[in-house]
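Tutorial, part two.
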Amino acid sequence: MNNTVRPRSYSLPHTRPVREYVGWPVALALAAAGCGVLPDVTVTAQGDTITSEGGGSVTLAVELSHKPLAALDVYAVSSSTREASVSGPVHIDQINWSAQHGIVVTGEDDLLSDGDVAYEVSVFARLSHPPGSPAEQVAVFRFVNRDDDAPEFQGLGDLPGGAPRATSAR
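Running the prediction step on this input gives:
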């Protein structure tokens, strides 16, 4: 009998595919117990998904479906860092998994009179160890960053009854 342990890819109920180096007995025990390596991650926006250039923010609440077998990190990425920043990753382990966790999305002042700008915030989860574990996208939120800059004066054409800004000579 060969004692070499070979990696196998398989899925446990309610989990993502994992690479198991211990063998099938452990996998079957985990499946029978209904445990997964990565629990389901639920992310909920606390309020409207509207930020403002004045620093208005929204908290994304992070919850797990059950106690994780391994620590994981949940983090968010903004599609436009000019419009919004996100707080650092949330580290969730077997001790703090049932506590409230949050990621804060804060509007950034871009100093442009660009009107209200839409952007997205994507939330990812990954195992903390080994470093460099692949991340899985768990949620995407559509946000709007409210502009606080006054529109620039472009000429009399901007005023009611004003003349056009530019004319062409023929």
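The two ends are 93 Å apart (CA to CA). In part three we will examine how such features are distributed along the chain.
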